[in-house]
Amino acid sequence: MKKFVLCAMVLYSCVALAADLHVPEDIIGAQTVAIVNLNVSSIKPDQLVKTMTDIMGKAPEAGQADQLKDFLGKFTGAGGKSISIVANGSKDTNAVKSGDTAVVVIELAEGADVAKFTEFANAALGFLKEGSAPECPKAFGNKMVYYSKNFKLPAKSKERADTFSVAHGEVAEDQLLSVVFVPDDSVTDTTKQNLKPEDAEVVNAIIGGGGVCLFSNFGVSDAPTLKLLVLAADAKGAEAINKAVETGLAALKKDAPPQLKTLLDGLKLAQAGTNVQATINIIEWAKIGVELSGMKP
Questions:
Q1: How many CB atoms lie within 10 A of CB 214?
Q2: Which of 5, 59, 126, 168 stands 20 to 30 A from 239 (CA)?
């Protein structure tokens, strides 16, 4: 049971067709630990409203839906495609806490008019300029990069960029949200220092692998899912992760109330080679969550 809990904590805190990385490889450095992407252009407003209605039992207020459609129309109409946050580690913990080491990347559609989008961004996303370096947004092809005036873009690490690119290649193209986490040496060393011998096989398989990906097609698909994919160090490590999660789930189900057991039954686990993937149906889970919370339509 303890191994399952530890495994789950590592998976979530480390928080098909190949998808583009969405950010310039030139800004991925040795201490880059995560890339979070919101693929705005993939959102289908009507599908998003339908999904929310299915979950809550009633449609969102018309004004809220209209505001969302208006923003999405303006964003993509100006040439916008996606928004990403590139998270970087640092020995300066205050810089990390203040957000100074985070880099925002706005990806434009091919052939987009940069001047037109900049005009839109200054009006609708003006907060990005506040506190940014004077040269921002800095252009890397069709990607506009914003970073703090207190932060210097890292030197490119080709090895690190390749690792992120391979990991993100496991994320399907039609996703609204994707998070790719790849622990750097600092995270790896810290984790190993506090590692108990009985947990070593599972944890090392995670932190020594090719990364952890969390992604969802919420607002895109009629049957939205949330998937957690671990790219383990090797097949043996993947088997250990899979077994630890299965054992933990079985223990939780044993004395679980019916609603919680239904939730756990809805989590689908699969292993293929060095990959371990957990999948949930968002609508089914959310409906039970709404019921358990006591919220009424």
A1: 22
A2: 168
Give the residue-averaged pLDDT of 92-113: 86
Please tell me the distance from the alpha carbon of residue 118 to that of residue 113, in angstroms, as a whole number.
9
Residue identified by tokens 């706005």 is 106
Continuous segment of H or E residues that includes residue 87: strand 80-88
Contacts of 88 (CB under 8 A, 6+ apart): 29, 31, 32, 33, 101, 102, 103, 154
pTM of the model: 0.87
- According to the model, what pLDDT value does residue 1 have? 40
Query: Where is 214: in which H helix or E strand?
Result: strand 211-216
CB neighbours of residue 276 within 10 Å: 29
Q: Which residue shows structure tokens 């398989």?
A: 205
Rg (CA), the chain: 21
Non-local (6+) Cβ contacts of 241 within 8 A are: 7, 202, 205, 206, 230, 232, 271, 276
Contact (Cβ atoms closer than 8 angstroms) between residue 40 and residue 71: no
pLDDT tier at 172 (50, 70, 90 boundaries)? Answer: confident
φ, ψ of residue 175 in degrees (nearest 5): -110, 140
Query: 254 pairs with which residues across the strands?
Result: none
Amino acid letter for position 233: A
